[in-house]
Specification:
By secondary structure, the chain is of the alpha/beta class. The chain has 5 helices and 7 strands; from the N terminus they run βαβαβαββββαα. The chain has a single domain, classed as Alpha-Beta Complex (Maf protein). Helix content is 28%, strand content 24%. The protein is globular and about 55 Å long.
C-alpha cells in the first residue's frame, strides 16, 4: 500500500470502540501521533461487529476491517481481555461478555469472577491482561491489515475490588510492581505497564512511520 496517502494533515484515525473509558486511554496513549483521533460516536457509526473470533487476533481484525470499510478511513481496533490461570484462561476473549445476559454491567462481571474464584488461594490467583491491536486501511476491494501489535501485563486477582479509576476488571487486577490494582494507579503509571499501553506504544511507532514513508 502507498502509506504517503496518510501524510495529509490532519489525517484521521478511527478508534473503533464504543467504550468511553477505552477511548480516553487511547486519546492519552496516542497523543503524540500525527493523526486526529475520532470515535465511532464522532462518525455516527452505530453498527456493532459480531465478534465471532476465537482469539484476540481474530476479533481485533474483524473490528478493524469492518469499521474501516464502513468509515472509509484508517481504523484501529483492539481486542483485549483477562486470562485467569485458575479458570483455565477464562474469561479470555469473552471478558466483555462474561456471564452472558445474567451480567448487565462491568460490576456484575467482576462480581461473577470473584464468585467463581472464591475458593482459590492467593498463590493460585495469577492472571494476565492481553491486548491485540489491529490497524486496517480501507483499500478496495476489501480492507488490508496495516499492522498488528500485542501487549501483556501479569498480575493477580484480588479478593475484593479496590480503586476508583480504570474500568472493567481493573479494580481486582493487582499489579505486584506497584502493590496496587490497576484501578488504583494514576493514569501515568497505568500507561507505563498496562497491556493496552504496551500494544499502543508499538502501534504508535508504526503509525508514525505511515506519515514518513513515501
Amino acid at each position: 500500500m502507498n502509506s504517503s496517502r496518510y501524510s495529509a494533515q490532519p489525517a484521521r484515525l478511527l478508534i473503533a470502540t464504543g467504550n468511553a473509558g477505552k477511548m480516553r486511554e487511547y486519546a492519552d496513549l496516542l497523543r503524540d501521533i500525527p493523526f486526529e483521533l475520532v470515535s465511532l460516536r464522532d462518525l455516527g457509526i452505530t453498527h456493532e461487529v459480531n465478534e465471532t473470533g476465537e482469539t484476540f487476533e481474530e476479533n481485533a481484525w474483524l473490528k478493524a476491517s469492518e469499521y474501516a470499510a464502513i468509515s472509509g478511513i484508517l481504523t484501529l481496533a483492539d481486542d483485549s481481555g483477562l486470562e485467569v490461570d485458575a479458570l483455565s484462561g477464562e474469561p479470555g476473549v469473552r471478558s466483555a461478555r462474561y456471564g452472558g445476559d445474567a451480567c448487565q454491567s462491568e460490576e456484575d462481571r467482576v462480581a461473577l469472577l470473584l464468585k467463581n474464584m472464591a475458593d482459590v488461594p492467593w498463590d493460585e490467583r495469577s492472571a494476565r491482561f492481553r491486548c491485540v491491536i489491529a490497524i486496517a486501511a480501507p483499500e478496495a476491494p476489501q480492507p488490508t491489515l496495516v499492522a498488528q501489535t500485542e501487549g501483556e501485563v501479569a498480575g493477580m486477582i484480588q479478593y475484593t475490588p479496590q480503586g476508583a479509576d480504570g474500568f472493567g476488571y481493573d479494580p481486582v487486577f493487582y499489579v505486584p510492581l506497584y502493590d496496587k490494582t490497576l484501578a488504583q494507579l494514576s493514569p501515568d503509571d497505568k500507561n507505563k505497564v498496562s497491556h493496552r499501553a504496551i500494544a499502543a506504544f508499538k502501534a504508535m511507532e508504526l503509525l508514525k512511520q505511515l506519515t514518513t514513508e513515501s
